């Protein structure tokens, strides 16, 4: 395991299968990159559990509460980062909410990089994910929008609009050789009306041989 503390940007280039861990101080930005593969969050905690991490220049009254935790931190980081090749998250109360006013906090986060494939299907399009050998194993799936560059469109007006579809896609696709995908509000419900969305799925094959490359829907339904 690689460990990094007190970084302005979390710049551990995580190799496949190796856990990277770091603490990023409140007001800074956490950057989780995978040189190869896609992010799988292991743990995340926003708050304070000791008096030494992110303590430089801070008065003692901002460090004394060591029982300060935001219990939704892992879910927030997982929603923003799982299945991405890199992820940037501001370490602020506006993102995580404030678990202890007056305490100077930090984000303690760990993740690994999965040697997986990623499928992106633009809204109202169809796609197929498959394994040349073995069967599908879904790691992560979202329907909505987590950036403005994927599936570009004049209605790509936000980067924080999505529903997790991991359980849904696991029940549909796990254990199969191939799985048809249809990025549709009728199937996944609409997390943000008026925004052009996409279905993103990170997956591998259960014999550890992944299908090649990133798959993007080629045509749009009419």
TrEMBL record:
Annotated Gene3D superfamilies: 2.60.120.740
Domain (SUEL-type lectin): residue spans on this chain: 24-114, 121-206
Species per Swiss-Prot/TrEMBL record: Clupea harengus
GO molecular function: carbohydrate binding
PROSITE patterns given in the database record: SUEL_LECTIN
Entry keyword set: Hemagglutinin, Lectin, Repeat, Signal
Gene name, Swiss-Prot/TrEMBL: LOC116220372
Residues spanning the signal sequence: 1-20
Superkingdom of the organism of origin: Eukaryota
UniProt-recorded name of the protein: L-rhamnose-binding lectin CSL3-like
InterPro entries on file: Lectin_gal-bd_dom, Lectin_gal-bd_sf
Family annotation (CDD domains): Gal_Rha_Lectin_RBL_rpt2, Gal_Rha_Lectin_SUL-I-like
Pfam families: SUEL_Lectin (PF02140)
Signal keyword on record: yes
């Amino acid at each position: 395991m690689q460990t990094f503390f007190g970084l302005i940007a979390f710049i551990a280039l995580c190799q496949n299968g190796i856990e990277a861990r770091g603490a990023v101080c409140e007001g800074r930005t956490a950057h989780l990159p995978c040189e190869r593969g896609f992010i799988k969050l292991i743990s995340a905690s926003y708050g304070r559990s000791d008096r030494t991490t992110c303590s430089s220049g801070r008065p003692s009254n901002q460090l004394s509460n060591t029982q300060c935790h935001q219990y939704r931190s892992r879910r927030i980081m997982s929603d923003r980062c799982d299945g991405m090749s890199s992820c940037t998250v501001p370490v602020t109360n506006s993102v995580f909410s404030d678990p202890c006013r007056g305490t100077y906090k930090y984000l303690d986060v760990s993740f690994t990089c999965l040697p997986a494939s990623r499928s992106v299907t633009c809204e109202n399009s169809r796609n197929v994910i498959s394994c040349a050998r073995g069967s599908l194993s879904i790691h992560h799936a979202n329907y909505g929008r987590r950036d403005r560059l994927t599936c570009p469109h004049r209605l790509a007006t936000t980067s924080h609009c999505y529903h997790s579809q991991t359980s849904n896609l696991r029940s549909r696709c796990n254990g199969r050789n191939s799985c048809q995908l249809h990025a549709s509000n009728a199937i996944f419900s609409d997390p943000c009306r008026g925004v052009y969305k996409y279905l993103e799925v990170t997956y591998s094959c259960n014999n550890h041989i992944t299908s090649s490359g990133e798959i993007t829907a080629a045509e749009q339904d009419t």
